[in-house]
Write a sequence for this structure.
């Protein structure tokens, strides 16, 4: 079997050194077999190990190979659809539970970083930047909503105030969330994997789960080995393919692209983002950016429905970067890559159980750094028999994509075109 390497990203080039882990070559027995070593899988494994379960993690490529090792690194609180939509979709008790959890993922990341001494350049402070007065109005109501669920540390910013934190003239205002922030995402995943192993968990790389034998005593097959487990957690998200057909039917992998500049002079970096906060704008197809610890600008945006890899990523993303920061016109791009996240029709995560012993969480639809850490905790609670918070997620409706596997891409692209047109027109 060919070895799968990390994509050529800034993160892979600046990762804390870790030797590759072996592939599974035998039959092993474990309490829980986790499929996928991204944040969902690693967070689940860590919470389970901390609660006395034995855990085996199977990873098709390398730890953090998927979105968890390629993302913008932004700690964004809440979900890709906000709590007001959840309140309208489900009853008040469930909405209350989900609302209370909306900021927990960020706290889990900070606890993990502190407890396991993870070196991942953690910085506090995230900005939501409004391009129109309508978007600003939305941020004002979002602040009121989040405060109703006990989340403070939020500051609304007018045009002058946001200019103090972002050297971009395009914004009419914004909201600063000091419980947001940013990290080196691959180093966070690598640190969490080391924590899993420090507690006795086993991680096998280059070991794709190719078949699940379902039943009272499920078995996960890899090309050269088998895992017999009491429970399985499916955490393959946008990279899962057809392993679990029920999950593929109700979600769609989408690509988003990221570029990284050469290191900027200290002075230029300081003028762009003086407080070193990360920023995302409020468009439906949003742009997001931040500085790295060695003063590069990481800039992401764009969505490719169906997750085909675009030929020239720099040609797509550089114009967006220059629209925000024309002062970077002579700066060289050192890295460009793409990664896949999993979109659901409601843009809310899909959490559930198949049969008695196969659990899953997937589809955080773009914002998943915090949610996936929470998901690991909620899945671990369910395996321990405390399912109240798991049920709050599991009861959210799951819809199949209109058009099925064949037509979901064009249908969604038309939907996105409509919303991005509304963004451009400011309506
Ligand atoms: C380019 C990009 C930028 C993003 N930026 C942000 C951001 O700034 N902030 C934010 O909140 N969110 C962001 N996201 C979303 C966020 O990164 C994801 O929601 C999150 O990382 C998903 O984690 P995961 O563990 O569920 O999936 P993944 O990290 O994708 O992990 C799934 C893992 O499962 C493995 N796998 C799949 N199938 C199998 C199998 N059969 N057997 C074994 N292993 C398997 C894969 O190889 C992969 O390593 C971004 C996503 C992308 C792609």
């Amino acid at each position: 079997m060919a070895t799968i390497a990390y994509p050529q990203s800034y993160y892979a080039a600046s990762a804390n050194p870790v030797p590759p882990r072996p592939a599974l070559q035998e039959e092993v027995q474990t309490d829980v077999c986790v499929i996928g070593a991204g944040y969902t899988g690693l967070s689940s494994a860590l919470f389970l190990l901390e609660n006395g379960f034995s855990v085996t993690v199977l990873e098709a490529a390398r730890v953090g190979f998927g979105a968890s090792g390629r993302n913008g690194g932004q700690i964004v609180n809440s979900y890709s659809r906000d709590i007001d939509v959840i309140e309208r979709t489900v009853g008040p008790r469930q909405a209350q539970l989900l609302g209370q959890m909306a900021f927990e993922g960020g706290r889990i990341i900070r606890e993990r970083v502190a407890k396991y001494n993870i070196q991942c350049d953690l910085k506090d402070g995230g900005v939501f930047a409004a391009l129109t007065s309508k978007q600003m109005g939305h941020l004002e109501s979002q602040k009121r909503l989040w405060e109703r669920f006990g989340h403070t540390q939020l500051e609304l910013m007018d045009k002058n105030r946001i200019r103090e934190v972002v050297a971009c003239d395009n914004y009419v205002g914004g909201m600063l969330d000091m419980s947001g922030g940013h990290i080196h995402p691959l180093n966070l995943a690598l640190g969490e994997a080391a924590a899993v192993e420090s507690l006795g968990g086993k991680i096998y790389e280059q070991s794709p789960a190719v078949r699940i034998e379902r039943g009272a005593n499920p078995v996960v097959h890899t090309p050269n080995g088998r895992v017999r487990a009491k429970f399985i957690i499916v955490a393959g998200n946008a990279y899962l393919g057809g392993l679990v057909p029920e999950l593929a039917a109700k979600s769609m992998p989408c690509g988003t692209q990221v570029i990284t500049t050469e290191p900027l002079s200290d002075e230029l970096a300081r003028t762009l983002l003086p407080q070193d906060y990360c920023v995302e704008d409020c468009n439906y197809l949003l742009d997001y950016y931040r500085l790295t610890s060695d003063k590069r600008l990481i800039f992401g945006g764009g969505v490719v429905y169906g997750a085909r890899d675009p030929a020239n990523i720099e040609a797509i993303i550089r114009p967006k970067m220059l629209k925000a920061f024309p002062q970077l016109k002579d700066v060289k791009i050192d890295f460009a890559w793409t990664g896949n996240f999993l979109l659901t029709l409601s843009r809310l995560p899909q959490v559930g159980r198949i049969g008695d012993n196969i659990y899953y969480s997937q589809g955080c639809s773009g914002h998943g750094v915090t949610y996936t850490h929470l998901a690991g905790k909620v899945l671990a609670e369910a395996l321990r028999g405390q399912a109240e918070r798991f049920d709050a997620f599991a009861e959210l409706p799951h819809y199949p994509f209109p058009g099925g596997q064949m037509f979901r891409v064009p249908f969604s692209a038309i939907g996105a075109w409509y919303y991005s047109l509304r963004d451009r027109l400011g309506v």
